[in-house]
Amino acid sequence: MLHTRTPWLRAAAPVAVLALALTACGGKPDASVSTSGSATDDEQTSAKAAAKTGTEPTGPEGGERTLASGQSGSGPYREESGKITYEVAAQKVRVGTEAEAKKMVQDPKNANGLVAATAYVKYTNKGPTLVKGLAKVANGAAIYADGQRGGLLIGTPGNLPGCEDPVDIDDWRVGESHIICQTFMIPKGAKSLEVQWTADGATSPLVWKFTPAD
Fold first, then answer.
1. Residue 78 pLDDT more than 80?
2. CA 143 to CA 46: how far, in whole Å?
3. 29-38: pLDDT as tens digits
4. Contact of 196 with 205, CB cutoff 8 Å
5. Residue 167 phi/psi, 5° resolution?
6. What is the mean pLDDT of residues 171-189?
7. Which pLDDT value is given to residue 154?
8. 102, exposed or middle or buried, with CB in 10 Å at 0-12, 13-18, 19+?
9. 153 contacts 110 by C-beta, under 8 angstroms
10. E strand or H helix that includes residue 5
């Protein structure tokens, strides 16, 4: 499942505006890092991926819902054109190496013990209208490893294999699906991995569990 690490790095590395902010375990202060200066606040985590599949839909309304890889849940997300209901399904997570992670940040020391993990999530517009402008639904997604949230890489390219860039999605019509990816820095060697997506107004997320690969 991790055989294509080198092409993945080639796709990600040319983006010079990746920004990473990590919060250390145990409530330690944030350590902000970037490849070109800007940064954002997020927490630390980790993972690698393996798979299961499922079919039964479920949603976030009654609390946290755990799904298998590829299984879909649904929930609303507010876009520029109004509140849209999405069907959401995490497909897989692709994990790189520590050496690759060091090449993705300005100061390689900031990536010590970390790897970059990309969540591939399929979103389907269920209505009631088309999505105008830049879709924000992927902002509800995050990767958690060993119970902690990863540090989001800002500016991660949409041209990773199998990923679409929200910038290129115009007038997202009802019934139309797109796979949008988010990349997070996570600790190397985590034992468990989750992709979470939280709908607007939901108190608990949809959760997809993955087993780290050997």
1. yes
2. 8
3. 232 233 333 3
4. yes
5. -60, -30
6. 96
7. 80
8. middle
9. no
10. helix 5-12
Residue owning tokens 């540090």: 151
The residue ranking higher by pLDDT, 36 or 127, is 127
Tell me the two tokens of residue 64: 């946290």
If residue 99 lies in a helix (H) or strand (E), which one and from where to where? helix 98-102
Q: Are strands 206-210 and 65-67 parallel, antiparallel or unpaired?
A: parallel
Strand-pair partners of 78 = 83
Indicate the SS3 state at residue 84. Answer: strand
- Which positions ≥6 away from 61 have C-beta within 8 Å? 75, 202
**Token duo for residue 182:** 């988010």
| pLDDT on residue 36 | 32
Task: Return the percentage of the chain with pLDDT > 90, whole number.
Answer: 60
- Give the pair of three-digit tokens for residue 67: 């799904």
CA-atom Rg of the chain in angstroms: 16
Contact 93, 104 (CB under 8 A): no
Q: How far is CA 1 from CA 51, 100, 211, in A?
A: 9, 17, 12
**What does pTM read for this prediction?**
0.75
Asked if residue 97 lies in contact with residue 115, where contact means CB atoms within 8 angstroms, the answer is: yes
49-60: pLDDT as tens digits: 322 333 333 444
